[in-house]
């Protein structure tokens, strides 16, 4: 059994994470309301990168979460890797601690700007480079998904449990409902989806929102496919959702059914990544997808 750092009680930590998360939710909802007024949109956007935008909401939530953790746990031997803190930084992230927080203050920034409800905050506590605890906050749905290392559940702002995992549905690949990206789809992924011929395809932003849809039982599988030489999702996109999905009984791996590796120099999670609703059948699903890719020569595979 994994033990938290000395002096940390899991129940107290989860209580703190609740408070930090709902404070972040208030901030995200505040800026979301401002964005609905186009006259103020330019004041919220903080960079000119259409493909990787940053807003005031990203920066403010980043500040809140890091400040709250540092204030509450001054003497604990852990570090914090945050998307906003490494953008534009060329040196590698280094940590001598087994414990590292991984934060994405606003996953689905494009959807946030576009005014959809499909954005989330991700916060994971990784142990020895693997997600242990996970928080996925979906403010517009009043949902806080929590994985405490043993159990997974969803709460609303009042603290009532409003959801538990609804997984373990054993389905063939073409019986599954796929949840896929709204803003990050590419032609290769579109072709793969067409060849698999899923039962249904749901379009949704934010990896956290997509994984939550799998845990709720609304969808069964998510496939992320990064083009060679192009940008890929990063550690902070996957760490917290992975903790939630794995804790609920699902799986998230690369196409060879290998767990994701964190804290590589680029933080990138490239290639083909598959998240599915059932750990026991996941390897079979990955194998079938790989065979389809090979058969139609859709994507360059190394093996």
From TrEMBL:
Signal peptide as annotated in the record: none
Catalytic activity entry: a myo-inositol phosphate + H2O = myo-inositol + phosphate
Keywords: Hydrolase, Magnesium, Metal-binding
Positions of Mg(2+) binding: 83, 104, 106-107, 237
GO terms of biological process kind: 3'-phosphoadenosine 5'-phosphosulfate metabolic process; phosphatidylinositol phosphate biosynthetic process; sulfate assimilation
Pfam families given in the database record: Inositol_P (PF00459)
GO molecular function, one term: metal ion binding
EC number(s) recorded for this UniProt protein: 3.1.3.25
Essential cofactor(s): Mg(2+)
PANTHER family per UniProt: 3'(2'),5'-BISPHOSPHATE NUCLEOTIDASE 1, AMMONIUM TRANSPORT PROTEIN
Record protein name field: inositol-phosphate phosphatase
Organism of this sequence: Prochlorococcus marinus str. MIT 9201
């Amino acid at each position: 059994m994994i033990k938290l750092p000395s002096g940390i009680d899991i129940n107290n930590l989860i209580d703190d994470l609740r408070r930090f998360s709902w404070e972040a939710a208030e901030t995200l909802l505040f800026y979301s309301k401002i964005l609905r007024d186009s006259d103020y949109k330019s004041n919220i956007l903080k960079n000119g990168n259409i493909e990787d935008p940053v807003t005031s909401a990203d920066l403010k939530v980043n500040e809140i979460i890091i400040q709250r953790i540092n204030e509450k746990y001054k003497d604990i031997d852990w570090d914090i890797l945050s998307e906003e803190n490494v953008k534009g930084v060329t040196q590698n992230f280094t940590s001598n601690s087994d414990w590292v927080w991984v934060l994405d203050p606003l996953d689905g920034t494009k959807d946030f700007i576009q005014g959809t409800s499909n954005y989330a905050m991700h916060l994971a506590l990784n142990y020895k480079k693997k997600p242990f605890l996970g928080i996925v906050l979906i403010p517009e749905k009043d949902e806080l998904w929590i994985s405490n290392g043993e159990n997974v559940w969803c709460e609303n702002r009042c603290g009532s449990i409003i959801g538990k995992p609804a997984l373990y549905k054993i389905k063939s690949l073409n019986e599954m409902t796929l949840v896929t990206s709204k803003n990050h789809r590419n032609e290769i992924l579109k072709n793969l989806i067409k060849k698999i011929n899923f039962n249904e395809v749901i379009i949704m932003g934010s990896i956290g929102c997509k994984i939550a849809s799998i845990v709720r039982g609304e969808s069964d599988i998510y496939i992320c496919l990064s083009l060679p030489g192009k940008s890929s999702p990063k550690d902070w996109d996957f760490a917290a959702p992975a903790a939630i999905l794995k804790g609920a009984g699902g799986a998230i791996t690369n196409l060879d059914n290998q767990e994701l590796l964190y804290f590589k120099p680029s933080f990138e999670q490239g290639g083909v990544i598959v998240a599915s609703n059932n750990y026991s059948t996941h390897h079979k699903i990955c194998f079938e997808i790989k065979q389809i890719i090979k058969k139609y020569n859709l994507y360059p595979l190394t093996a």
